[in-house]
Amino acid sequence: MNSKQLFPVGHVMGYAFSLILTAVALSVLMFDLSPKTGVVILLVTAFMQAGVQLVMFMHAGESEDKKTIYTNVWYALFVAIVTFLGTLLTMIWGYQ
User: Fold this and answer.
1) Is 90 exceeded by the pLDDT of residue 17?
2) CA–CA separation, 6 vs 65, rounded Å?
3) Chain-centre distance of CA 45, in angstroms?
4) Of 6, 8, 53, 61, which residue is least crowded by CB atoms under 10 Å?
């Protein structure tokens, strides 16, 4: 963001986008959707919301070490996915 800019347009747009994503997620409750459709909508909006929060409000791309920040985020996401799939493998799918 430019230091001479008086009105934070990016932050307002990020806030508006967050409200829209929240409304879309709330629509899962309001409309009679199937559970699979609801989960897909919630997952997509959750990841999009996390991206908006990371970039717009935590200023992840504005510092000199943005490559390190994004690398850490991707690594954490990888560890979370591997942990989730490993849990499914051992607890639900009956790995022996």
Assistant:
1) yes
2) 26
3) 7
4) 6
Q: Rounded distance, CA 60 to CA 77, Å?
A: 16
- CA geometry: angle at 64 spanning 63 and 67, to 5°? 95
Contact yes or no for 16/56 (Cβ under 8 A): no
Give the pLDDT band of residue 1 (cuts 50, 70, 90): low
Task: Enter the pTM of the model.
Answer: 0.66
Round to whole Å and give the CA distance between 95 and 44: 29
CA 94, CA 88: separation in Å to the nearest integer? 9
Given a contact cutoff of 8 angstroms between Cβ atoms, the answer to whether 95 and 87 are in contact is: no
Q: Provide the token pair at 87.
A: 């849990």
pLDDT tens, 39-93? Answer: 999 999 998 998 888 888 777 777 788 888 888 888 998 999 999 999 988 888 7
